[in-house]
Amino acid sequence: MIDRLLLHICCAPCVSAVLEKIMPEYDVTGYFYNPNIYPESEYNLRLENLEKLIKLKKNNLKVEKYNVKNWQEKIKGLEKEKEGGKRCEVCIKIRLEKTAIFAVQHSFDIFGTTLSISPYKNTMMTNRIGLELEKKYGVKFLEEDFSALYKRSIVLCKENGIYRQKYCGCEYSIR
Ligand code: SF4
């Protein structure tokens, strides 16, 4: 039997090529927890596009409630940080910690994230956070670098009519 993977998904473009790569190896359930996305209309647009893709791929998807206020409280004082800095570290930890907890509660074998596909993300930071959570919660983390799949994700978005956003997610990343 193959391992059950809970995959944190930041958006449809990022998961498109990741799913193509890992689906033969894992029984994948998607996990959409991204309270960082601003404004809510953008959150809804990203979620709609993800649901469209997940339907095509016939995967399961768990969607957590949108709560940008709670996210803003946690990153207070870090609003002016550069992209890739301390604010992003906290933001990634918030999202991955919730994923790890859900994975433990629902007996997944392993958890992971699509975040490393983006050339704008610090993959080493993401993996370090994931491995710290692995230790803390006793659930294996899928340590990966999906950055080589970025170009493929652009092709897949075109083929499937998937919306590709122009900024990372939070209001501070809108330039
Ligand atoms: S730039 Fe992206 S990763 Fe960094 S805090 Fe904003 S949404 Fe989170």
How would you sum up this structure, described in words?
By secondary structure, this protein is α/β, with parallel strands linked by helices. The chain has a single domain (4-173), classed as Rossmann fold (3-Layer(aba) Sandwich). 47% of the residues lie in helices and 12% in strands. The chain contains six helices and five strands. The chain has helices at 12-22, 40-57, 68-74, 86-105, 123-137, 150-160; strands at residues 4-8, 27-32, 60-63, 110-113, 140-141. It has a five-stranded parallel β-sheet, sandwiched between helices. α1 packs across α6 (150-160) and α4 (86-105) packs parallel to α5 (123-137). The chain is globular and about 45 Å long. The protein starts with a strand and ends in a 15-residue tail after the last helix. The mean pLDDT is 96. Bound molecules: iron/sulfur cluster (SF4). Iron/sulfur cluster (SF4) is lined by residues 36, 83, 87-88, 91-92, 168-170, 172-173.
